[in-house]
Amino acid sequence: MSSNTGPFPDSEELSPAERYRASALRRAEAATDLGAFMRTLDFELDDFQKQACRSLQDGRGVLVAAPTGAGKTIVGEFAIYLAIKRGLKAFYTTPIKALSNQKFTELGDKYGADNVGLLTGDTSINGDAPVVVMTTEVLRNMLYADSATLDDLGYVVMDEVHYLADRFRGAVWEEVIIHLPSEVQVVSLSATVSNAEEFGAWLDTVRGDTDIIVSEHRPVPLWQHVMVGRQIMDLFAGETTFDEIAPPVDTGDTKRDSRKDSAGSRGFDVNPDLLTVARSESMQGFRARSGPGGRGQRGRRGNDRPGGAGDQRGVRPASRPQVIASLDRMDLLPAITFIFSRAGCDAAVAQCVGSGLWLTTEKEQRIIAQRVDEAGHDIPPDDLDVLGFWTWRDGLIRGFAAHHAGMLPTFKEVVEKLFADGLVKAVFATETLALGVNMPARSVVLEKLDKFNGEAHVDITAGEYTQLTGRAGRRGIDVEGHAVVLWQPGTDPTAVAGLASRRTYPLNSSFRPTYNMSINLLAQFGRVRAREILESSFAQFQADRSVVGLARQVRSREESLAGYAKSMTCHLGDFTEYARLRRELSDAEHSASRTTSRARKSLSEDSLARLLPGDVVDVPGGRAPGPAIVLSADHSSREPRPAVLTLDNQLRRIGFDDLEGPISPVTRIRIPKSFNAKVPKSRRDLASSARNALRENRPPAPGHNRNNDFGRAAAMPNQEKRIADLRRALRAHPCHGCNEREDHARWSERWWKLRRETDGLVRQIQGRTNTIAKTFDRVCDVLSVYGYLEDAGEGRLNISPAGQRLRRIYGEKDLLISQALRLGAFDDLDAAEVAALASALVYQAKREDRGLRPRMPSVSLETAVDIVVREWSALEDVEEENKLPLTGEPELGLIWPVYKWARGRHLQDVLSGTDLAAGDFVRWVKQVVDLLDQLAKIPGLDPRLARLCADAISMIRRGVVAYSSVL
User: Fold this and answer.
1) DSSP state, 472?
2) What are the φ/ψ torsions at residue 123 (nearest 5 degrees)?
3) What pLDDT digit, counting tens, does each position of 202-235 carry?
4) How far apart are CA 907 and CA 495, in angstroms?
């Protein structure tokens, strides 16, 4: 790994001859491109920045891993400087459009608007400029299309390259790195990762000479605190900053023991006053929202320690306005408070406004009001109310703002600019802000250390903690940054210290071949070369490296197995055989026990899948036991969760955990066509119908019967006979009478346990060898089944005309979209209906938001949706058979909003009756625009459909959608 010292050591440590040589080196560097670049800056570069720039200047690629705010992007700017000076092009890629827009503005200001372009999924500005900012997907698409824009490309800056670990989009980064022409120098900018050596070694393998520059140093010291009540206390005892608690830079071992990363093991102790608070709270038995408020301390200077933290009688967490007021009083604003909930962010602003808190001066209020009014000037007045403009404006003028994905992009960017200019002092944000968007603050506050990941509440990781708190401390503005964790009932200071002191953020590949990727590789390189390319991925590189370690473990275990076998030798007979009988008996007894529970689960899930809308069931357990009406069936899911309405008018889903066995209807009612689950009166009327049916004991629909047998009758006799046979064989074995039988048995248990572990390692080795290429072969099999590939003999595959169209369709549902085109799903639709159908192929609803299938706006659209849903079901079966990840189900929740928007309806009408936030709507419509643009440009597409796609784009790219494209 490259060091961070550079060629010019401190002159005080040098002899006269060495000082003369260092001076000569500095003069020589001043005459280079780097020297000229540094003269354009108004600050001195850090050593790691100089080192990375020297590598670029010498023609090598670089991987720069450093903390947030350390100044990594200056290396990317030097690459752009070199490109312009040498008459080449430079691309600057980012993972998100907001960051692309931000870099586009910054670079345009620096190099001139004519020299900088922007390409995102829905925006194209000056795409032939020498410097182009783009999302990574756009560059991937260019590479597969062999775009002329790639001519004279000299440098590619991949900002936030650690995003390749993202399981949904991360593969795009690897595709770009693998496919870029060899003469292009790649600048990879990453957050600090614990396996930088491994990632750098892969880059060196696929890109040639690549230098790895890692810096753990934060230019602005970061202090760690816990806010107990309204008082801020140090997390660590003594004066301990981010750099001091950081572990040594990792040398590539991704299996570092987390215990070695703990603060205490390196001599950094948790503040004893915090431990006293925790012990006191534990002994008092206080829980959330209980007990009187406690008193803490300011902390870092250590001059105002409380007389006795042990006197605290429990801690009442400070309210959000109190937190901000405390930070303001201690001169720790501006601050970003991370709240893992959009509603929580909006509520925090409302609470601060409602408390009467003001953070701005009259002059700042006038500036904010002017900028906000300018931002809303072009938005139709009718839409301002829907967007919550006036509430948003009121918060901003007072110095408060929310920042989350549900906001209009325009509003988010106004918040970012006002915050960067020091006008807004307190931002309440979701974790998406931590990804790339340049919004540093003096302080970062974490309300909680757990979050909801869509399925359950989970603790944040050390890597997430580091990324979130990395926003604290503005270079060139703040002398120090502050990370503050709010004390919640049950807070463990030692656990918080563990998060703050670990830098375990391994970069793991999420790469896998997709349909579009595979068919593009086949078209450009053929099957043999395509497999070789895929085997050069970081995913396979990591798998191959892990195989070496696994093979070493297998050899070690085989030696131990030989020793165990010797220790269990019995003079009366073959104890290995006797041990096998004991093991088989134990397994058979456990299997008999599991059979009942498995059968119960299978029958219960089957009974859930058979439920139909209108069935009335008696739910025995869960959050709302009692009678419920089935509103929508769930036939296709592996874990069926039909939507129901309880008799107290509550909407929910029921699953296996709510049952005690198979469930069947007790009666049945008709659900009116006019029923709308979102309307309270509709729910009350339907619940009333169900009560009447239960009172009258109406029979359920025929064909439902409850099976309480759970499969015992068929399963138990065979199992009981096998158990009896094994017991007889065991008693008849010669070793059964050995005096040392149990001693031998203990060794045999160790042998069997180690044998199982060793066999598991062998299977892992087999599974990891050529993993990616094997997946590619299965993808090719599916493409062949659907006629996208044709057998040309001798193992060669040709691309069919349908396959050529698939090459230009990018997205998670690429094959399903292509099939929808082939099967004529779009043929009988007008432009508005085309946009609506496209929304079903990009939209991803939260599982809890999925409900009844809505009635479609037209008969032709109903037919088109039927085609898509049927084809998705068939595709899922084929993918399951070929052991491939399943294509997501088409989501119909956006069809009506997009259809209404395409028909020119007002935003309020479009969002009425939905749970969509305005920002979400704009984001999804932009993705619809992106898909329609892809379809319109497919070579050989029916000209009528291409025109409809173009018309659909013009119909939905209006109002807030058009206004939010570029800011």
Assistant:
1) B
2) -140, 135
3) 998 888 899 999 988 888 888 999 999 888 888 8
4) 47
